[in-house]
Amino acid sequence: MSNSILCAVDISNGNHDLPVLKRAAQLAELDGARLDVVTVIPDFGEGWVSGFFKPDYHDEATKHAQEALVALCEEAFGPELNAKVRHVVATGTAYQQVLDVAEKAGADMIVIGSHTPELRDYLLGPNAARVVRHSSCSVHVVR
């Protein structure tokens, strides 16, 4: 039984993660668990790369990601359930941030999508595979 479920999505995939969100909502409803949804944006603020971006780029990117995440969740859940969901935007490497957010939130389960694999990562996408390997809680992979 889960008390807290974390669903990881990539907002850059458009509506591709709607089935992942819907499955996470079903699992949360079954257990009466809290549902958190996370998306991760890359960190361009380190080293010489940061000089190519405006000083407030990260804040703007985070704001845009938050708006897109809330909109995607509202499409998947509807406004009533979406109002109960905690929307998290993290910055860094996707799989590391998903694992960090899950640990900090005390998640009992992570729900993540397995996107169409390329030849080099045939079974799971690289982030999903790393989350499965390194998570200290259960991981539900949606294909």
- Count of the separate structural domains: 1
* Counted beta strands: 5
Query: What's the number of helices?
Result: 5
Mean pLDDT: 90
Strand order of the largest sheet: 3-2-1-4-5
Could you name the ranges where pLDDT drops below 50 across 5 or more consecutive residues?
none
Q: What class would the helix/strand composition place it in? A: alpha/beta
Indicate the proportion of strand residues.
Answer: 15-25%
**CATH domain class name:** Alpha Beta
Shape: globular
User: Might you state the CATH topology name?
Assistant: Rossmann fold
Specify Rg, calculated over alpha carbons.
15 Å
Topology as H/E string? EHEHHEHEHE
Biggest sheet: strands, sense, closure? 5 strands, parallel
CATH superfamily: HUPs
Give helix % range.
40-55%
Q: Characteristics of this structure?
A:
single chain, 143 residues, alpha/beta, Rossmann fold, five-stranded parallel β-sheet, globular
Question: Any overview of this molecule?
Answer:
The chain is an alpha/beta fold and 143 residues long. It has one domain (4-142): Rossmann fold. It is 42% helix and 20% strand. It contains five helices and five strands; from the N terminus they run βαβααβαβαβ. A five-stranded parallel beta sheet has the order 3-2-1-4-5, with helices on both faces. Helix 1 links the parallel strand 1 and strand 2. Helix 1 packs across helix 2 (57-77) and helix 4 runs parallel beside helix 5. The chain is globular, with a radius of gyration of 15 Å.
